[in-house]
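User: C-alpha cells for DDE family transposase, please.
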Amino acid sequence: MLVTAGNVNDTTMMAAVLDLIAVARTGPGRPRTRPDRVLADKGYPSRANRRYLAARGIPATIPEKADHAAGRLRRGSRGGRPPGFDPAAYRQRNTVERCFNRLKQWRGIAMRSDKTARAYRAGIALAATLVWIKTDLINTA
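Assistant: Done. Predicted C-alpha cells:
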C-alpha cells in the first residue's frame, strides 16, 4: 500500500506500488516480489508502465486506449504491433473494483478526512483487514 497526495496520478505510481510487493511463501524462501500478471484499466497503458512490466517479465493485461491505437496505425509499419491483451484474464479485474467499492463504504476513507497520511493509511489497513476477515468467513461458511 502506498499513500500519496490526492493530486498524484495513479499511473505514475504503478512501478512504485509493484516494487513494494512481497508475498510470503508457504514454505521456506524469500517472499515473492513479482506478480503472475497485472490487470489494469485504460488509465495505465503508458509506455513507461509497459516497459517496466516487460523488463520485470510481468505479463500485462491493459486495454489499449483509442488514441494510442490511432497513433500506432497512423505511423504505419513504424507504429509497431498492438500490445497483447487477454479478454478472459481482464474479466477478473472487477475483483479489484469491488474491493475499492467495499473500502469506500467507510466514510473516512472515501472522503479522505484524516489530517495525516499515517492516520489515513492506518484506516485503510484496518478497513481492508476487516473486509478480508468478513469475506473469508463468508467464503468458508
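User: Anything notable?

Assistant: Residues 104-141 form one domain.
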